[in-house]
Design brief:
mainly alpha, 4 strands, about 0% strand
């Protein structure tokens, strides 16, 4: 900063218009696209821009967003949880078995489901923290392990009321209290949407307003520097996988309650969708790092696009392509168009 002749400091030079435009596009581009897509679908189908359809969109992305919040927490510590889809499937199957085969209460099934999610997280923590296996390889192995275990404990069959076990009908069924979590409403708002909102608030406060969250971000930025600063990196990484496992377990419980049965592989689609939502979140407001707000917006973006394409009668098999395209665009925005990035 220099002084002009009258002694007042000279204002710093403004950035060129092109640079300012690029920065604005980097920070707000994804939000602008979301608004534009919403307006387009609303103009194409009047039923799209209604309160009832908004609830449908939110309900369709609630489980994705919950699972994605767990993935986001694991990413803040420099990890990457590829086992979330298998975790969801495993929880769906164990909750179904608890009620249908063993005739346990819905509350007991929920407790068993949460413990199952922690079991998956525990295996991830052992492999990553204790054995020193790289995150991607460790969680990939855990994914196959629990996919296989879900098949073994159910003999590869779906679990539903009235199924036969050893030539006899199963003694239990899904309880009405349990299924309420998947299809019930509170003041016309679906229960999964309420659970998603509550967990998003908790995750935001945890990551942004607690020492644990700040420690996780520090580890994700530079694990060695965090260790030298006195942060117990191993324990915090185990905590991150525990949170991811619990989020996947909650998603599995809600999915099981929505389906009213245990379908093998029911959680498989949630891996790609959750990872896509978390990575799309990198491009929201130029965060360029895992964050709760971005993850929520990413899940909403996916839900809006899929819902709009469905209303326009687009073939169902185009949805995976669209999700992949959204992910690629967001990654390019985050990692290639970052202002000041040197090539």
């Amino acid at each position: 900063m220099t002084l002009v002749t009258d002694g007042s400091p000279e204002a710093p030079p403004r950035a060129p218009a092109a640079a300012r435009l690029a920065t604005a596009g980097y920070r707000y581009g994804l939000l602008v696209v979301l608004v534009a897509v919403t307006v387009f679908f609303g103009a194409a189908r009047s039923s799209f821009a209604t309160y009832d359809n908004l609830l449908i969109v939110l309900q369709s992305v609630a489980i994705v967003a919950i699972v994605a919040l767990g993935v986001t927490v694991s990413m803040t510590a420099g990890g990457f949880d590829l086992s979330v889809g298998a975790n969801v499937s495993f929880v769906v199957m164990v909750t179904a078995l608890a009620m249908v085969r063993f005739d346990l209460t819905g509350a007991t099934a929920i407790g068993i489901g949460l413990l199952a999610g922690l079991l998956v997280a525990g295996v991830n923590a052992l492999l990553v923290v204790v054995a020193g296996v790289p995150d991607l390889i460790a969680t990939l192995g855990t994914m196959f392990l629990f996919q296989g275990l879900a098949l073994i404990i159910t003999s590869g069959q779906s679990v539903s009321a009235g199924m036969t076990i050893g030539g006899r009908p199963a003694p239990g069924r899904y309880t009405s209290g349990f299924t309420w979590f998947g299809s019930g409403t509170v003041a016309s708002v679906p229960v999964p949407v309420i659970v998603m909102a509550l967990l998003a608030v908790v995750a935001y406060v945890f990551l942004n307003n607690t020492r644990w969250g700040r420690a996780l971000y520090a580890i994700g930025g530079n694990a060695q520097a965090a260790r030298l600063a006195g942060i117990r990196v191993g324990r915090y990484r185990a905590l991150a996988y525990a949170v991811s496992g619990l989020c996947a377990a909650v998603g599995g419980i809600l999915l099981s309650a929505r389906l009213g049965r245990g379908d093998v592989g029911a959680g498989d689609p949630y891996l790609m969708q959750a990872v896509a939502a978390a990575l799309i979140g990198f491009a929201v407001l130029g965060a360029n790092r895992p964050n709760v707000v971005g993850t929520a917006v990413g899940a909403l973006f996916i839900g809006v696009v899929i819902n709009g394409l469905t209303m326009l009668n687009a073939p169902y098999y185009t949805q995976t392509f669209v999700q992949g395209a959204l992910l690629v665009v967001s990654l390019v925005t985050s990692f290639t168009l970052t202002p000041g990035r040197r090539r």
